[in-house]
Design brief:
The chain is mainly alpha-helical and 185 residues long. The protein has five helices and no strands. The longest helix has 63 residues.
Amino acid sequence: MADHEHRKDDDRLDLPGPRRGSRGPGVQLDSERFGQFAESVARFMGTGKFLVYMTVIVIAWVAWNLIALVKLRWDPYPFILLNLFFSTQASYSAPLILLAQNRQEDRDRVTMAEDRRLTAQSRADMDYLAREVAALRMQMGELATRDYIRSEMRDEMRNELRDELRSLLSELDDQSRREERPHDD
């Protein structure tokens, strides 16, 4: 099963394939420096300045090879040398642009992984805080608040005062009845 999964990774186009034996001369390049070079070339080729430079060069090339004396023309009318330069430029610029895009995708992938990690951490922190707040609310619901205690004490004092008043009124009534009875005799 592990061999089957390994073969699946070999078939993926978004991952580099396994290294095979070198068939050419062993040229060692600093991949970071070359990648930075590729990005700078790709960045420059995507500017208006590059288009203006290329336009000026092509116009000057064509004008010189059309207007100059026959002996001074280095690329007569079908401009084969100019087309060769364009083909050479395209054959080098396309891989450089792809390399720059791959490096940007790698940076984006790392950034997105870090963003996902931070989002997960933030979510875990928020969940923890929400549970803590819920626990505090539950504990606060079980605790008697100052206003609750005051209202309970007020009610208790009212009840005690009412009971005392009733007992005093009852004693007064009893006393007034006792005083009324001797007069009747």
